[in-house]
Design brief:
Elements lengths: L1 H15 L2 H30 L8 H9 L4 H25 L3 H25 L6 H13 L4 H25 L3 H8 L6 H31 L7 H10 L4 H25 L3
Helix pairs in contact: 1-4, 2-3, 2-4, 2-11, 3-4, 3-5, 4-5, 6-7, 6-10, 7-9, 9-10, 9-11, 10-11
Organism: Corynebacterium comes
Protein name: DUF1206 domain-containing protein
Pfam families: DUF1206
Length: 267
Amino acid sequence: MHDAKQAARNAADAAGDHPALTTLARGGFVVLGVVHILIGWIAVQIATGSGGGEASNSGALSTIAQAPGGQFLLWAAVLALVALGLWRLTQLFTGNDVKEKAKGGVMAVVYLSLAATTATFAAGGRTSDSETVTDVTATVLSRPWGEVLVIIAGLVVIAVGVYSIVRGVTRSFREDLEAGAGAGDVGSAIIVAGVVGYIARGVAFAVLGILIVWAGWTNDPEEAAGLDAALRTLGEQPAGSVLLIIIGVGLALYGLYSVARARYVKM
């Protein structure tokens, strides 16, 4: 059994360190950056009343699909996101502790799911994050203990948001950058973008989590409608337009940080 585990770890190590995979995976971070920049831009448009589609992954991918050469760019994004997901997946075997292994597995699912959504747009299809969240919530609510499960899911999303805020405030994300670049080699502008970006992303996720909890509490799946609904809810608060602009800019800065991460992160 030990030999089998060691063999799996060695194979995962070899795959995770392969130049082709790591190069493509770095491209995945660039894709994530572009998506967040577009979500931020859409959020600002909503806040200023100058248009804006769905402020979500789907909305960002739709924007890319409509650009010249958009389909080609999306297929390239699919390849990069799959590589990033597979790279994360190797951490299930190579992680030094349970936390690192769990993070690798969870992030692999996130990136591969985004790759699947991107492939839908690349193939000329359409999907909506808001409709997906509502449909999934409705399905769960129809099951025994559905309300409890939805509330738990919402609390998990809130925890993710809080974790992101803490990560930004404490600047703990610097460890990821400096592991590959070395302490002092990461520019202050990138650090500032990371701080603001993580906090803005955390606030958005916290609000999303609250909406999901409320959907479970009221047994109304329409209350849980994805990131777009969370951002629009922020915009409906007192001084909401200003708040939404700040969050939109913050999400865009997180995107710039993600692009920088593609260069500096240790892989």
